[in-house]
Amino acid sequence: MKIELKLKPQSERRQDVFKPEKPLPFGQLRTDHMFVVDYADGVWKEARIVPYANFSIAPGATALHYSQEIFEGAKAFMHPDGEIYSFRIDKNAKRMNISAETVCMPKIDEDLQIEGIQRLIDVDRKWFPIQEGASLYIRPFMFGTEDMLGVKPSKTFTYAVILSPSGPYYPKGITEPVKLLISDRFHRAAPGGTGSSKTGGNYAASLRAGEYAYSKGASQVLYLDCTNTYIEECGAMNHYHVMKDGTVVIPEFTESILRAITSESVIELEKELGRKVIQQRIKIDDFIKGIENGDITEAGGFGTAAVVSPVGTYIFEDGRELKVGDGRIGSVSKSIYEYYTGIQTGRVKAPAGWLRKVERY
Ligand code: PLP
Ligand code: COI
Q: Which fold has domain 4-168?
């Protein structure tokens, strides 16, 4: 499908290269344009890049009432050659369609998703933030637009992509490990539900638990499965821990855990990282014992926004605290972070197909 460009006048677009003086927040800034495609009568149509602006949406749209919405999160990086490269967006495009199936939305051609993202970045390339640790965060999303109050799938949809020049998700980056609340009160997802999809409803349902975690001094919840037996994941990242022999352990992907592209990438990089990376069901009791007796030396989270976020301390509902190692970032987490961000930023050779140069169209 041809992508039509209806751009802002040159004089209203960013003219200079973006060199923010202060550390950028995550997800707050926007660029000048967005990519939009509409779906009606069984087909996707009118792919276009237009100025970033409000949507006009019917008050009865299914997205507003029943959260018929899905999204993705990816990043693009500037390399030493001065070119911008998106990272593994083919994986995001594929997962978008998996999420679409879960909430009865139509699939959208993966090549069209990729082309829309690449061309949008090209149009707004002046917004790429030249700042240590910053990147261009890519947010594709799709929502139901039919004006209909029956609880049924919409017949019309909009797919769009917006960009956000962003700093790290956790403002202190990896230098200050985060605290996680281990909660047996809240659950993120259940078997037979939508936990393995990136659908807005999962995140709405996690807000209350997230606010509760903040009130206890933690930045996210480490969720357990519905029986409070196994570790699942966090609100915005998968979980991992490191055994004293250096093995990295990620909870097995069940139907209530998002298959994080970051975790999958770390698994694929096992050889290059020179360590074993395994997935298994992890009992929370064994995990706690492992930290207490020193068998587990590091822990943290993997995610596009979070990258590699080490955990320094776990806190419990009763106020108890459990420190991991000496509470600081460990050498395994640090080496994974460095290798992974090295690939993303072009300092380390990337496996074939992981990076896609943004052409000057
Ligand atoms: N788990 C959840 C619930 C998330 O929201 C995210 C973020 O996308 C992740 C894990 C990490 O996934 P990915 O590495 O694909 O960004
Ligand atoms: C991401 O890591 O890209 C996410 O989507 C997580 C969060 C910002 C919701």
A: D-amino Acid Aminotransferase; Chain A, domain 1 (3.30.470)
Q: Ligand 2, from 169, 188, 202: best to mutate by most atoms within 8 Å of Cβ? A: 169
Q: What is the dihedral of CA 302, 199, 165, 308, to 10 degrees?
A: 0
How far apart are the C-alpha atoms of 249 and 240, rounded to whole Å? 6
Residues within 6 Å of ligand 2 by CB: 73, 236, 303-305
In short, whether 304's Cβ falls inside 6 Å of ligand 1 is: yes
What is the DSSP annotation of 250-303? Answer: EE---TTS---HHHHHHHHTHHHHTS-EEEE--BHHHHHHHHHHTSEEEEEEEE
Distance in Å, CA 21 to ligand 1 centroid: 29
pLDDT in 10s for each residue of the chain, 361 residues: 999 999 999 999 999 999 999 999 999 999 999 999 999 999 999 999 999 999 999 999 999 999 999 999 999 999 999 999 999 999 999 999 999 999 999 999 999 999 999 999 999 999 999 999 999 999 999 999 999 999 999 999 999 999 999 999 988 878 899 999 998 999 999 999 999 999 999 999 999 999 999 999 999 999 999 999 999 999 999 999 999 999 999 999 999 999 999 999 999 999 999 999 999 999 999 999 999 999 999 999 999 999 999 999 999 999 999 999 999 999 999 999 999 999 999 999 999 999 999 999 8
Q: Fold identical between 4-168 and 178-345?
A: no
CA atoms within 13 A on the CB side of 333: 32
Task: Considering every ligand atom shown, identify the ligand nearest to the alpha carbon of residue 139 and give its number.
Answer: 2
Indicate whether residue 303 lines ligand 1 (CB < 6 A): yes
- Kindly state the helix (H) or strand (E) to which residue 211 belongs, with its residue range: helix 200-215
What pairs with residue 248 in β-bridges? Answer: 242, 277
Q: Which ligand is nearest to the CA of 235?
A: 1
All structural domains of the chain with their residue ranges: 4-168, 178-345
Mutate to test the pocket of ligand 2, among 237, 238, 263, 265 (most ligand atoms within 8 A of CB): 237
pTM for the full predicted model: 0.98
Query: Which CATH fold topology does 178-345 show?
Result: D-amino Acid Aminotransferase; Chain A, domain 2 (3.20.10)
